[in-house]
């Protein structure tokens, strides 16, 4: 983001997972370089927190949709059940 021409970033909740993750990775790179002014560091850190929460929520939703195929006693598929992630 350019300090002379501020850009309005889309709301984290509006981004698909891949774009949110890409933005989060860029924020981490910028913060790790350490060449960002303090006020901008705080702002992009806060944006990073929102992006992280958004990515976590999208992953949880995806995990909830994953199902496993159940098999009957004869070994043939007979239906689906929630995937046990534990």
Map the helices and strands:
Blueprint: H1 17-33, H2 38-65, E1 67-71, E2 77-82
Helix pairs in contact: 1-2
What does this structure look like?
With 86 residues, the protein is an alpha+beta fold. It has a domain at 17-69. 52% of the residues lie in helices and 13% in strands. It is built from two helices and two strands; from the N terminus they run H-H-E-E. The protein has a two-stranded antiparallel ribbon. A hairpin with a 5-residue loop joins strand 1 and strand 2. Helix 1 (17-33) packs antiparallel against helix 2. It is rod-shaped, with a radius of gyration of 20 Å. One of its GO terms (biological process) is DNA catabolic process. One of its GO terms (molecular function) is exodeoxyribonuclease VII activity. It catalyses: Exonucleolytic cleavage in either 5'- to 3'- or 3'- to 5'-direction to yield nucleoside 5'-phosphates. Belongs to the XseB family.
Strands, total number:
2
Query: Which residue ranges are poorly predicted, with pLDDT under 50 across at least 5 consecutive positions?
Result: 1-6
Taken in chain order, the helices and strands follow as HHEE
Distance between the termini: 41 Å
What portion of residues is helical? 40-55%
What do the pLDDT scores average to? 85
Task: Assign an overall shape.
Answer: rod-shaped
The radius of gyration computed from the alpha-carbon positions, rounded to a whole number of angstroms, is: 20 Å
Number of H/I helices: 2
Taking strands numbered 1, 2, ... along the chain, how are they ordered across the largest sheet?
Answer: 1-2
Strand percentage: 5-15%
**Helix/strand/pairing class, anyone?**
alpha+beta
């Amino acid at each position: 983001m350019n300090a002379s021409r501020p850009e309005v970033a889309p709301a984290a909740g509006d981004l698909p997972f891949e774009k949110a993750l890409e933005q989060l990775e860029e924020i981490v790179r910028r913060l790790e370089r350490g060449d960002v002014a303090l006020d901008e560091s705080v702002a992009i850190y806060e944006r990073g927190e929102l992006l992280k929460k958004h990515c976590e929520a999208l992953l949880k939703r995806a995990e909830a949709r994953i199902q496993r195929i159940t098999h009957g006693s004869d070994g043939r598929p007979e239906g689906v059940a929630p995937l046990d992630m534990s």
